[in-house]
């Protein structure tokens, strides 16, 4: 568990607490066929919940798991589960699918044999401008030919875990990760942006890393605010020369970066502005 006060939706109803959902013989248990998404409720809003529900259905399809819950029904289920929390609660929302059965060889998931659950966990939003640090990692993102990297799949995350473990063993908060060509892709847990001479840059989505829902929202917010946001190929040298670096992801929304190996950055005006824009946009939907 990453939070407290867990609630679980499983087999058509909400349960208080964490409940067992997988069986020993489930395809997902031994073959890793599970997908998930992460969304947030905070200050009474659930920003981009529809996009997170739509993505978990697309992730399922990418792993040949039949998605069995429509986006509309999934949102209704989630809102029903969230109603048990207090109005000020910050909650991490994790819908999940997994394959229950495989074909006679085991490996191929059987169409329609799908488990679905939602896990809710109370988890405070990090304080504004809580920063992190980055380091290089020797591990990199897979490519489509070797991994289903167009899905948010549980089976991709052991690679991210070893990046994080390596970074944290060196005393850094996260890893700045290359794609298979050696350009900057993302971090182990979030997308990455940099600022240089007033323009905002982020690695162009090339199908080998998660081009996040929060990333897209920040790009739209910053552009609407008049910023020049450029999605392009970025090298590690580009990041060493940056004026500002920040991360985006559903969990924290935006996290400033204060160091990349021996290069240090200030928490800058663009990260601050992006945070304000995100909160203004999210709360205006309340
Ligand atoms: N990259 C990785 C590897 C992630 O785990 C996440 C968090 N889901 C992100 C990027 C950010 O994506 P999103 O904004 O859609 O949460």
TrEMBL record:
Cofactor(s) listed: pyridoxal 5'-phosphate
Organism: Tropicimonas isoalkanivorans
InterPro entries per record: Aminotrans_IV, Aminotrans_IV_CS, Aminotransferase-like, BCAT-like_C, BCAT-like_N, Class-IV_PLP-Dep_Aminotrnsfr
Coiled coil residues, start to end: none
Protein name: Probable branched-chain-amino-acid aminotransferase
An example Gene Ontology molecular-function term: branched-chain-amino-acid transaminase activity
Reaction it catalyzes: L-valine + 2-oxoglutarate = 3-methyl-2-oxobutanoate + L-glutamate; L-isoleucine + 2-oxoglutarate = (S)-3-methyl-2-oxopentanoate + L-glutamate; L-leucine + 2-oxoglutarate = 4-methyl-2-oxopentanoate + L-glutamate
Gene Ontology BP term (one): branched-chain amino acid biosynthetic process
E.C. code: 2.6.1.42
Function per UniProt: Acts on leucine, isoleucine and valine.
Family to which this protein belongs: Belongs to the class-IV pyridoxal-phosphate-dependent aminotransferase family.
Top-level EC class as recorded in UniProt: transferase
Keyword field: Amino-acid biosynthesis, Aminotransferase, Branched-chain amino acid biosynthesis, Pyridoxal phosphate, Transferase
Top-level division of the source organism's lineage: Bacteria
């Amino acid at each position: 568990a990453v939070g407290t006060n867990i609630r679980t939706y499983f087999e058509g109803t909400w349960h208080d607490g964490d409940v067992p959902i997988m069986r020993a013989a489930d395809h997902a248990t031994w073959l890793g066929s599970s997908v998930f998404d992460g969304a947030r409720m905070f200050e009474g809003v659930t920003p981009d919940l529809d996009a997170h529900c739509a993505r978990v259905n697309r992730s399922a399809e990418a792993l040949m798991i039949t998605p069995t819950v429509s986006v509309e029904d999934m949102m209704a289920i989630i809102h029903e589960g969230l109603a048990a929390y207090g109005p000020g609660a910050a909650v991490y929302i994790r819908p999940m699918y997994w394959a229950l059965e495989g074909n006679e060889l085991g490996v191929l998931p059987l169409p329609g044999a799908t488990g679905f659950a939602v896990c809710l966990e109370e988890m405070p939003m990090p304080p504004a401008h809580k920063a992190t640090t980055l380091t290089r990692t020797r591990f990199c993102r897979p490519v489509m030919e070797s991994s289903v990297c167009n899905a948010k799949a549980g089976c991709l995350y052991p690679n991210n875990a070893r990046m994080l473990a390596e970074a944290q063993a060196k005393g850094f908060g996260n890893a700045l990760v290359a794609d298979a060509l050696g350009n900057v892709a993302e971090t182990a847990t979030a997308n990455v942006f940099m600022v240089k001479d007033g323009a905002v840059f982020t690695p162009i989505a090339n199908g080998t890393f998660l081009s996040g829902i929060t990333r897209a929202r920040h790009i739209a917010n910053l552009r609407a605010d008049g910023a020049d946001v450029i999605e392009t190929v970025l090298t590690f040298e580009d990041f060493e020369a940056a004026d500002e670096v920040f991360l985006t992801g559903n969990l924290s929304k935006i996290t400033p970066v204060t160091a990349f190996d021996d290069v240090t950055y200030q928490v800058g005006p663009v990260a601050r502005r992006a945070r304000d824009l995100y909160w203004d946009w999210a709360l205006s939907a309340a």
